[in-house]
Input
Amino acid sequence: MRRVLWGVMSALAFFACARPVGAPRGPAGQAPGPSGPPPPPSVASGPLPPPPEKDAPPPNAERFEPAQRFVRDTKLALYSYHEKYIGNAEGYLAPILRVADGGFVVVGTRADYPEGQYQVGKSRPVVAKLDGAGKKSWERSYRTSGFLDYEGASAIELPDGYVVYVLSYVHPSRGAVVRLLRLDRQGEIVWDRRFRGQGGVNTPFAQYVQLVGDKLLLDGHMYKDKTETAYGWKGILSLEGKIEKDEVGEANPYSKD
Output
C-alpha cells in the first residue's frame, strides 16, 4: 500500500515540475503560472537554512502596502510560491523588496491577453521600481530569444542593483528553465544567465534562491528521464554571472521528510 501511495505522490510531483503555464492565476487571473500543487520540497542542507513557513505573513507587512497596492491596481501577477519570502531577512529572493532608498522593487508577470483567455507567447516578466509611496519610477520587461512564456519570480538588492529570478519556458507544455539576471539601478541588464535544459527532463528547477556572501545558492530538484523519480539538485552562481555548481543529488530526496 505504501508503494502505491508513493507512486501516486511521485507522479503528482512530476507533473507539478513539468507543469504548463497555460492555467491562469494571480490576483486578476491573467498571468500564466503553475497549476495544481507546488513542486515537491527539496531537502535544505549545508548553507541553506529552511525557508520560512509558507503561510506566515511577511514581517511588518504594513511596510509593503504601497507595493501591494501597485500590484493590485496594475493587475501584476506575483509568483505565489515566493511570496512567503517578502520581508524575510535571510537573503532569499522575493517578489517584493523594500530597498535602500526607501522605495520598492516588484517582480511579476504581465499578460498581454484578455483576462482568463490564455494565449501562448503573450506573457512578460517585469521588474518595476517604485518610490516609497508606491509610485512607479520605471518598469522593464525581460523577454529574450528562445522562450515563449515567462514568470517573473523574485529578486534581491545588491549595492549597485539587483538580481532577478525569471522562470522561462521554451514551450508552455514543459517545465521552466532557471534563468537569473543581474540588473543595474535603472534595470539595465548587466548579465543574463540560464542553467541547463530546455524544460522538463534534464532541466533543474530551483525552488528557492538565496544570496549568501557573494554567491547565489539555488536549491531544488530535477528529473533525469520521463519516469517519476526526482533527484535533488543544487546550483551556485557567482555575482559575476559564473555558474560554479550544477549538481544532481540523490533520488527522491523529499521522500525522507
Summary: Confidence is low (pLDDT under 50) at residues 1-49. The chain has one domain: 2-256. The longest helix spans residues 2-17. The radius of gyration is 17 Å.
